[in-house]
Amino acid sequence: MTALGMTTQYRSCSADETIALGRRLAAQLAPPKLVLLRGELGAGKTTLVKGIAEAFGAAGQEEVTSPTFTLIHEYRGADVTIYHIDLYRIETERELATLGIDDLLRDQRNLVLIEWGEKFARFAEERDLEVSFERIAEDEREITVSQR
Ligand SMILES: Nc1ncnc2c1ncn2[C@@H]1O[C@H](COP(=O)(O)OP(=O)(O)O)[C@@H](O)[C@H]1O
Ligand SMILES: [Mg+2]
To answer: Ligand 2 mean position to 52 CA, how many Å?
Structure first.
């Protein structure tokens, strides 16, 4: 772990390590928050969400799957509701509007985690936290957390 100002870098050597990092990061994710998860397909974005959802008692690791086709998954914990969103297939503002993400961002109890959210400039501007994933090797990832 290396701290560079508001940026912290981690190295993960397995999916389990990335899940464990998600559990640790949850301490910084008290709602309301908008978090962008950046990285190529298979980088580990959804894997991190497994740890975050577990930490909030919102879902078990097995319940968290990729919202690639459903676009939004909702995981309800006692105090926090997590919305895990995948915008990979969303191309236009019009399609985006049908998802109602603005309503989700207005609720103080919500933690909104978006994969491919950087495709839309306003999410890049409004985000509280960005977690970016770099694939170093088959099981190795560099994970950078940038805070506002
Ligand atoms: N260090 C690691 N961190 C996260 N995932 C890893 C790691 N090493 C291997 N993997 C594998 O890479 C894949 C990551 O998939 P996923 O989390 O769905 O990626 P994304 O959501 O970024 O497309 C999983 O099959 C996971 O088991
Ligand atoms: Mg994913």
So the answer is: 14
